[in-house]
Design brief:
By secondary structure, the protein is an alpha+beta fold. The chain has six helices and 18 strands. The chain has helices at residues 100-114, 124-141, 155-162, 164-181, 205-220, 249-265, and strands at residues 2-6, 13-14, 20-24, 32-33, 45-50, 55-60, 67-69, 72-73, 78-79, 85-88, 91-95, 145-153, 187-192, 195-201, 224-226, 229-231, 234-242, 271-272. The protein has a six-stranded antiparallel β-sheet. Helix 3 (155-162) runs antiparallel to helix 4 and helix 4 packs across helix 5.
């Protein structure tokens, strides 16, 4: 197991359940992607189980800034011991042995830290880390990226008529639906209350608006049940896109939020950019 002691994902744990895993900054190329550290190379180092020595070893993959174990530069396959600290870029990872019970404990702890109990979506902190990473990749590759801000319509009416437990169940079900429909390389989180936000790499403004319309239709046509009560909310959506609307997480989120207010002002249950 690897535990992030220093870096953007401090506290995160990675289980080494495969014989060999590549660590790096570029998703799709690295088995363990570590965002938020520009000094980590796309494919930085490899950790694998050496069947001859029956231990894990780390090997640098020609990274720009090198790999160090307990302060010593890795020049070849280097054996890892319990508690060893691996430095890649400015991120420090602690290597630790664990048994099955301990592994299950850390998996549950990771879930508690990173997953929203109500919706099953990642928490906002994790979303923002991955958003920054995805945007940086899109900037480097000159790919578009879409951002959506979404707000359920009619939640107060649901709460007043059926109770807050039905309202909370509706938020949970809508959140799970959005998570299923956003493209696989994108991500959704609950921004707060009944608000959601999402990003989708590779989508320009036109395709982002199409995605927004699809999400709106899915919510509009859905039936969300709780304890025999069926409710049919709608959702208002604001869209922004990189590069037209900005090149930072803050700028794109602000523009999508402004578009969301336009959707609400236009009568709700619609998509605006």
């Amino acid at each position: 197991m690897l535990i992030v002691l220093r870096g953007a994902q401090i506290g995160r744990r990675y289980l080494l359940n495969e014989r060999m895993l590549v660590l790096g900054r570029v998703s799709g190329k690295a088995g363990i992607t570590i965002p938020g550290d520009p000094e980590i190379s796309g494919t930085h180092c490899r950790i694998e189980l050496d069947p001859v020595r029956d231990c894990h070893v780390v090997t640098d993959l020609g990274s720009t800034n090198g790999t160090r174990v307990n302060g010593v530069v890795v020049a070849g396959p280097t054996e890892l011991g319990d508690g060893d600290k691996i430095l890649i870029g400015q991120t420090i990872l602690k290597f630790s042995f664990h048994d099955v019970v301990e592994g299950e404990f850390h998996q549950e702890l990771d879930r508690m830290m990173n997953i929203d109990d109500l919706t099953g979506l990642v928490v906002l902190r994790v979303f923002e880390e991955r958003f920054r990473h995805a945007l940086a990749e899109c900037i480097a590759a000159r790919r578009p990226l879409a951002v959506l801000m979404m707000d359920m319509d009619g939640l107060k009416r649901i709460n007043d008529r059926h109770g807050h437990h039905v309202g909370a169940s509706t938020i949970a079900q809508v959140g799970r639906l959005l998570g299923e429909l956003v493209p696989r390389d994108g991500l959704v989180t609950r921004f707060g209350g009944d608000e959601f936000t999402a990003y989708a790499p590779g989508l320009g403004r036109a395709r982002a608006l199409t995605l927004g319309e699809s999400l709106g239709e899915a919510v509009r046509s859905g039936s969300f049940a709780c304890e025999g009560v069926v409710v049919r909310p709608t959702i208002s959506i604001g869209v922004a896109a990189f590069p037209e609307d900005g090149s930072t997480v803050q700028a794109l989120t602000r523009r999508a939020d402004e578009a969301l207010y336009r959707a609400k002002a236009a009568g709700r249950d619609c998509v605006k950019d």
